[in-house]
Each structure stands twice: as structure tokens, then as C-alpha cells.
Amino acid sequence: MRTKELIGRRIQELRKARGLSQEKIADKADISPNYLSRIECGRENPTLDMFIKLSNALEVEMLEMFDFRHVVSHKELKEAVQNISKTADEPTLSLALKVLRAVIR
């Protein structure tokens, strides 16, 4: 499964766990419901600002949107990280490394 799909599925899972509609979260995040739907389907590349808006709308720590341990295997997680490292530019890799280090601590 692609990383965008994992993130989208996780956002959808968090939204549904709170009993909230796409419309409600989209309104709270100040985005269109169609855009949120595309994020949840893994067809969009949300920016860091968008992740902040979504985490606030969902009332979760941003880290929770990237917690896929219960959905995928260890091997799939490693592959996802490797795919990100192959396609990301240097500033994105630097940010990703900082996030990973913060999570591991």
C-alpha cells in the first residue's frame, strides 16, 4: 500500500472513531469536503499546514495521523519509509528525519 493511502486511511479512521462526517471535519479544517475525500482516498499530497489543520480538526496529535502499526506489517512500513526517501527533496527528508527522531525518543 502506498504511503498516501496509509495516511488517508488513518485520517479516515480517526475521523470515524470520533463519529464525525467528512463535512464536519472539512468545515473545522477550513477545506472542502471533496478535498478531504481525496486525502482520505490517497489521491492528494497534503502539505504540513494541511496536516496541522487536520490534526486540530480531529483533536489529535499530528503523530497519530502517521501511526500505521496496526494496519501494516513491519516490512511494509520499512518499504514506505524507503519510498519516501527516494522521492523526497532534501528539506522534506530533513523534516522527516527530525520527526522520526522525535518519535523514537
In short:
The protein is an all-alpha fold and 105 residues long. It has helices at residues 3-17, 22-29, 33-40, 48-58, 74-87, 90-104.
Question: Tags for this entry?
Answer:
single chain, 105 residues, mainly alpha, 434 Repressor (Amino-terminal Domain), 6 helices, 0% strand
Proportion of helical residues: 55-70%
Proportion of residues in β-strands: under 5%
Which architecture does the CATH hierarchy give at level 2?
Orthogonal Bundle
Could you tell me the radius of gyration in angstroms? 14 Å
CATH class category name? Mainly Alpha
Number of domains: 1
Which residues sit in consecutive blocks of at least 5 with pLDDT less than 50?
A: none
Number of separate strands: 0
The CATH topology annotation reads as 434 Repressor (Amino-terminal Domain)
- Rounded mean pLDDT is 89
**Counting H and I runs of at least 4 residues, what is the number of helices?**
6
Shape: globular
Describe the overall structure:
With 105 residues, the chain is mostly helical. The chain has a single domain, classed as Orthogonal Bundle (434 Repressor (Amino-terminal Domain)), CATH 1.10.260. Helix content is 68%, strand content 0%. The protein has 6 helices and no strands. Helix 2 packs across helix 3 (33-40). The longest helix has 15 residues, at 3-17. It is globular, with a radius of gyration of 14 Å. The mean pLDDT is 89.
Topology:
Layout: H1 3-17, H2 22-29, H3 33-40, H4 48-58, H5 74-87, H6 90-104
Helix pairs in contact: 2-3, 2-4
